[in-house]
Design a protein that fits this description.
alpha+beta; Beta-Lactamase; 5 domains; 6-stranded antiparallel sheet; flat; phosphoprotein; transmembrane; phosphatase activity
Length: 897
Amino acid sequence: MSDASARFRRLAWRTVVGKSPRSVAGQVFLLQVAVVGLLVLCAVLALYLQSKRDTTTEAKRRSIAVAQTFAHSPGVEQALRLPNPSTVLQPMTEATRKSAGVDFIVVMDTHGIRYTHPLPSRIGKRFVGTIGPSLAGKVYTESVHGPLGHEVQATVPVDDYRGKVIALVSAGLKVQRVTSALDRQLPIILAAGGGALVVATGGTALVGRRLRRQTHSLAPDEMSRMYEHHDTVLHSVREGVLIIGADGRLLLANDEARRLLELPSDAEGCPVGELPGLDPATVELLGSGREASDEVHFAMGRLLAVNQRPTDGAGGPGGTVVTLRDSTELQAVSGRAEAARERLELLYDAGLCIGSTLDVVRTADELARVAVPRFADFVTVDLADDVLHGEEPAPTATDMRRVAVSGIRDDHPLYEQGRLIDFLPSTPQARGYDTGHAELVTDLASAEGWHAQDPMRTRRIVDYGIHSLITAPIQARGVLLGMAHFWRAKQEPFDAEELSLAEELVARAAVSIDNARRYTREHALAVTLQRSLLPRALPEQTALDVAYRYLPAQSGVSGDWFDVIPLPGSRVALVVGDVVGHGLHAAATMGRLRTAVHNFSTLDLPPDELLQHVDDLVGRIDQNEACPERAGEIVGATCLYAIYDPATRRCVMARAGHLAPALVHPDGSVTFADLPAGPPLGLGGMPFQTAELELAEGSQLVLYTDGLVEDRARDLDEGLELLRGALAGHPGRAPEESCQAVLDQLLPERPRDDVALLVARTRALPADRVADWDVPRDPAAVSGMRAAVSAKLEEWGLSELGFGMELVLSELITNAIRYGSDPVHVRLIHDRTLVCEVADGSSTSPHLRYAATTDEGGRGLFLVSQLAERWGTRYNPHGKVIWAELTVPDLDALLAD
């Protein structure tokens, strides 16, 4: 087998050597040898350059790494401060140099005098290199010829704790230390080049033998028969062939070329420029001799695809060969295919672009924009005015609102956006709306029914150049929502085939517009429901100056709520809560919880007890509504409940999983209340804790839900800091202005979550409007208290209430003395109403009842209920307080004071 291979190689070599360099085999062989040699040379050169670059780069990288590591090593700065740093640094640098694999590590002072060097004799001499950039705090690398030879070195600064450069560290190594890839890969490249040359030699030998077999071995009759066959094929193919000489004369034209160009029988031998029927561009191409590939030329009423190649490329005679193909029908088919492709592309883009939001106007605008300018020059979209509000549209083309206008220019005379239009029955818009089918108007200038709509404007539209129109109804789920109008001015007029494209384009947008309409309706219903459950107006009270904001979420309503509830004794309760979840169910649950808080507040419970009752209610709601279909729909809620007393300026509050309120102090500083964090409502099992704060008059208490400070783009801490910044520095700002400033600072245009914000500025009752007495447990003390109260009412100008207040006070004090326990305390408050409070240390509460005719007592509370506007009992840690309110006759005079 090896002998046969050797004989084949010897035969191939003799065959190649014996060929003349002008032969095809010899030229191929020489070309292959040149190509292989060039490739090997290029590979070696590229490898050398890359190896050189990688060597330098690796040396710089290692030098920088070692120098920076040593410069920041512990103990370097302390050693530099010694009288003789070399004694400490020289062993350190040598140990580091050996472990890091570099040739030297030099530590020097800021003047370049070495402290260390691998050659001890070099210590104390000036460093060879540039130190200026390093003294400026930069890392500097360079290539130098130093004591060790050609080196790459990096110089870095050593900074003290103040950032001052106190020394420099330079590390480097000789470039030759980095392993070069050239030595490893050069033998491989040379071996591959030699193998390629051997393969080329064998291939050339095979090509030479094949050429001899296909040419010189043919007999004359075989050659003649071959030429005859070629001539038959030349004149039979359905492709024109022309052969043109170097002098520009037609040498040969086959039958197909004569037919396509309608050449005369004596055309061969004529100059190309004298051939009849050819357009100048074709004559120029045939006479130029340049290469051409599928150039389309018009000749004899046909579109011809022309290819031209020179014939002297392989040493043959000069001239060109031209082929002609009739592409008239192919061009028409290609045009239809291109139109279909553009149509599909437009519909595809419409599917992607239209319906990106659930906004009716935005969706209509997307329809208008996607069709300009690929389908129409101008597009207008009109929707029934009821559709914009989520309602069902009217059956006629009246009250149509123009919601979108898009075009190639802005100075068009079409109806402007926002205009309300009533289309006449004679217009194509009204006909299309009534029939539910698109209408085509190819010539607007002659459309009399369209001109009747607005003669002056329609004339301006025609004069502007708009000449054709397609109006397509926007219909989805059997409901007509509006019309889309496609206008052309620069393009060709619309035809019947484009009518179906307009209908399909509008049909894709109709579903999105209807979805947006339905969403608008449902969203409006949900927002209406939620707003009906929220306070419509704040109650009258004098303890707080209150402002609020409520913003529904972009994606739908949620369970955020707030409340301001007047309490007895001129006190006011502030409530902010958030039900987990979104949608109508969350809004309905919010209404239930708000009602529950209102009901529990009438019991005048402390904040922690009230939240405990609400927590039990939420737990019962979860249990009663738990089912597989609605599992996890209600998981709880958060709430903050605060009670402010203007008489004492104290605020008691508790929270259930809610964020702590912000406090704006009179000096403009902002803090967040240190309020114990209770569990969210609905979890159960954990008590709630209260915190009591004393607020200076003019302080602002800011309650909010998490939608104000939390967002996907920022965390909670960042939101709280933004809230602090929006509130700080404005102590005298009104609550209304504070609300707006907070929303402008923290919220985007359309928030993702509901936001409830409550800002309350505290007021304090003047000291002369509050009177206190301690009452001994002696029935004789009642008469003295009546006299003291009468005197105080006389001082306040309320002597007309004296009789009723004396009766109420007598009954309440008598009950406290008879049934209560020490201490007994009376407080009289002059606010919007006249409030009398009697406190004692007992937790027993009196009850209103009807006394029998034979009973000697039991009519006191009945008398109190008849004389007082309201009365009730509240409990505190020390006992109870029974209170009663009497209406002040002249409220306007009181407010004027």
